[in-house]
Amino acid sequence: MKVIISAGGTGGHIYPALAIANKIKEKNKNADILYIGTSNRMEKDIVPKAGFNFIGIKINGLKRSISLKNIKSVYLFIMAISKCKHIIKKFKPDLVIGVGGYVSAPVIYAAHKLGVKCCIHEQNSSFGITNKFAYKYANRVFVSFKSLESKMNDKKCIYTGNPCSEDALKAPEADKKKFGLSPNKKLVLIVMGSLGSKTVSDKMKNMLTLFNNKNYEVMFVTGKNYYDEFKKIKYTSNVKIVPYVDKMVSLLKKTDCLVSRAGASTLSEISSLNVPSILIPSPYVTENHQYKNAMDLVNKNAAMILEEKDLNGDVLLRMVEKILNDKMFTNKMKENLKSFEVKNSASKIYDEIVKLVGVKNERTN
Predict the structure, then answer these.
(1) Is 250 within 8 Å of 173 (Cβ atoms)?
(2) Of 202, 313, 334, 181, which is closest to residue 257 (Cα–Cα)?
(3) pTM to 2 decimal places
(4) What is the dihedral of CA 148, 150, 153, 156, to 10 degrees?
């Protein structure tokens, strides 16, 4: 099997793409995979380190406002289609998979024009701009939320969940002692994505003092850009401030309450691991998709929501302690999370791929 996978721009697109790539290699040891991404964003470093061949193309996203920069973006898009056609003709894939980010649009379009079968995966509860464009060219459309599958009511639209959830289940549990945490105290983990959030960090400086001397521990992951701002602030020993946590999902397995943004990969992880959460959707993302993601869980009482504009210490403290202390409430939340979990998401995607291209499984074991 020869497969081209394309995704880029953010970890929310790249890591599901890599989860699919890894599953293909796990199931079919002879699979040949080529990853097409942008030449100047994070995938150019992440993908080769993951062991996959990578080709970068120059492309920019369109500005939503009227801008002369859009003229250049359209030009780069047209040039990207031409380059992708050349790559596809040379590589001769059985299938092309787009996993989001504007880089995948010319890849899917070029593949369709050349008669190559295509699939796309949407991580969020509503389609992003790229996947809206790519939808009509795709033979299969994999989605992470049941609500989106129901909304589309289209046979080619298949609920598979987010492939990152399978990786989350496989991850080992973290040793809390390595983080200076007590193995016997409940843990509240607060994290606003890998880069952090200036708005939330500014509010947290004072808000975290409300957690001083509690009988549980709070770890705030600032993001590397904001860590220095917290060094001069004194908190009691139960409040930990760190810039970054490697392999966060392992620590999630030891977390009693997560306070987080509502990115698709995060929601797939908390759903698969049944982690009670307070979601603070980023109001700065395209089409407010994090709020829509969060509400999919909130409407089923599988998470709590606190919008950034309403974030203050008293409200956050009450919500955290509701999750930590109200056992009946928290157990119900965990039970409701099970309706969102897909433990074999990447495997489901692989099986659908095999049906589409007619390749038999060839296991490595």
Answers:
(1) yes
(2) 334
(3) 0.86
(4) 60
